[in-house]
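User: Structure please.
Assistant: Input sequence and predicted structure:
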Amino acid sequence: MGTGLTETQKTDTPITASKHGDVAREASLSLVEPKGDTLVAKTVTINRPREELYDYWRNLERLPSFMENIERVEALGEKRYRWVVKAPAGHMVEWVALVTEEKAGEYIAWTADEGAEIANSGRVDFRDAPGGRGTWVTATILYDPPAGIIGKAVAKLFQREPAIQVRRDLRRFKQLMETGEVATAAWTKAQLAEEND
């Protein structure tokens, strides 16, 4: 009995590291409105049902609970959202994005409005992992770093580069969904006050 998955989908290898020739190009073409020239794609296996993971992610205002660079996401109506994101050197960037395509329990895709500070588009897919191991969550993002190659290098230096962030954010999403919290070495003000008492 087959799994219904393509050869590429049978592994949870990131799209950008796939040994199957045109997978990265095909992934960027699968975006409804590709915007950007730098492709980032990461996958994580989460031991939860895909519908539960999709439902949590689809409420975009909750994304800052596990995405450390997202300051806030505000619903503007008609599937439009304002994103406010931390950038290198204490700066903030923001843009408006439109949810362009979605299928409950399976995927959500978006694209930034024309003229956004960071041109971007992306898609998050939720697929059943083989063997009842939970769900594969794959985030595919296409973006143009501000200031081109130099901006990308600066973002990497400050750990704000999307390739780094996507990997970390998916790991935190896994922690949150499997354990109910995101593990951190940082202390909250309440923990610090309690320790000093």
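Residues 162-179 form the longest helix (18 residues).
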